[in-house]
Recover the amino acids of this structure.
């Protein structure tokens, strides 16, 4: 540390400043990137390597940082006034950012930890000041932020707004914050499956049709789509020219699917799953809400089966393991991490609430078709909803 400070205080340090970023998008999984040396000396963008600093990993090991055009603003430190909330704009041309995080949805990055590292170019691996393997790297004090929200997103770049770990803006204690169209209750936080002393909020949903108090399993995702077992309800049949109300159908579609290395993409023939809401000759479509409902499917988890993720993450495979629904996030050639199904880089919860009134009604109002584990077309109006928001409230700025 002393050496780098002395060098920086020289009139001519003789080496460019390099800013590196480490994004921990899941526990133990990192994306490494920086703005490229072109920002400093006009050379072409190229990846660089720097040394590992974490004691839980191999200190001094080489880490490669991918060069991606980045614009960072607001990282200055002030002694007074409001806490700064920096922004980081990252180019996403050619899916450079998406590929570095294994194809995860950018919204999944909200809450992720971002570590900013600053050093001089001469301390990079292979340069004159490189400390070598097994030693701690030479760098300025690291700063840590968390991705608070996606400020803007388009086909060229995505801008993240960051927050310091101690930035508690918007927290209200001890009263509950009044929100409008979104439910603040913890999903399934008050289910009767939990001990009385750990229940919280008002959501007592237990992932089952509420038929006679305890029906068959029922799952939905954050897009308010039902997820049913692939073989339930008599299974799915290919749609041809007409449909029968409540029946299940498939249509074919080519999709970009990740291979087992989690990076390589290939186009494969896949299936869309649908439930007919009426008997009609209209073809299945997401825009035809009158005649069709899109369905997702799950299969029982099997350690010897390969489960896939897609560039459109809505099509990622769902599995049911020990009564819990999971959705694959990222593939790996290491089969041990895939067979260990838990929240993290490779798996995430598949049964997720959309936090809207519709999310509540599709759960509590669901009616099962003849013990088939398939929801009926109509939603029962007799069930009361445990929605915790205040739909009549409008947020004014």
């Amino acid at each position: 540390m002393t050496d780098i400070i002395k060098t920086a205080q020289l009139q001519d340090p003789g080496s460019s400043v390099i800013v590196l970023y480490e994004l921990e998008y899941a526990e133990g999984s990192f994306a490494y990137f920086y703005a490229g040396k072109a920002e400093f000396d006009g050379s072409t963008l190229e990846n660089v390597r720097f040394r590992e600093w974490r004691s839980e990993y191999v200190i001094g090991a080489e880490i490669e940082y991918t060069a991606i055009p980045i614009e960072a603003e607001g990282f200055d430190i002030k002694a007074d006034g409001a806490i700064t909330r920096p922004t980081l704009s990252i180019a996403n041309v050619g899916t450079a950012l998406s590929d570095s995080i294994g194809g995860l949805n950018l919204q999944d990055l909200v809450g992720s930890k971002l570590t900013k590292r600053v050093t001089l170019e001469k301390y990079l691996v292979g340069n004159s000041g490189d400390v070598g393997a097994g030693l701690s790297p030479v760098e300025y004090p690291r700063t840590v932020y968390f991705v608070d929200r996606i400020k803007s997103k388009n086909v060229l770049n995505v801008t993240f707004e960051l927050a310091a770990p101690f930035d508690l803006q918007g927290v209200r204690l001890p009263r509950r914050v009044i929100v409008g169209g979104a439910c603040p209750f913890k999903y399934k936080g008050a289910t009767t499956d939990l001990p009385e002393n750990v229940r919280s909020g008002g959501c007592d949903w237990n992932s089952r049709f509420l038929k006679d108090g305890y029906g068959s399993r029922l799952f939905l995702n954050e897009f308010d789509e039902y997820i049913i077992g692939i073989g339930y309800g008599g299974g799915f049949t290919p749609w041809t020219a007409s449909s029968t109300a409540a029946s299940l159908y498939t249509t074919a579609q080519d999709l970009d699917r990740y291979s087992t290395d989690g990076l390589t993409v290939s186009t494969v023939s896949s299936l869309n799953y649908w439930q007919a809401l009426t008997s009609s000759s209209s073809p299945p479509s997401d825009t035809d809400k009158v005649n069709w409902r899109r369905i997702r499917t799950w299969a029982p988890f099997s350690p010897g089966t390969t489960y896939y993720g897609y560039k459109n993450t809505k099509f990622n495979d769902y599995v049911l393991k020990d009564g819990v629904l999971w959705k694959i996030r990222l593939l790996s050639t290491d089969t041990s991490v895939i067979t260990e199904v838990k929240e993290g880089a490779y798996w995430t919860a598949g049964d997720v609430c959309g936090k809207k009134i519709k999310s509540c009604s599709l759960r509590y109002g669901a009616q099962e078709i003849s013990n088939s584990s398939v929801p009926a077309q109509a939603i029962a109006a007799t069930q009361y909803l445990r929605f915790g928001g205040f739909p009549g409230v409008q947020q004014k700025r």
Q: What stands out?
A: The chain has five helices and 18 strands. The CA atoms of residues 230 and 297 lie 5 Å apart. Residues 223-351 form one domain.
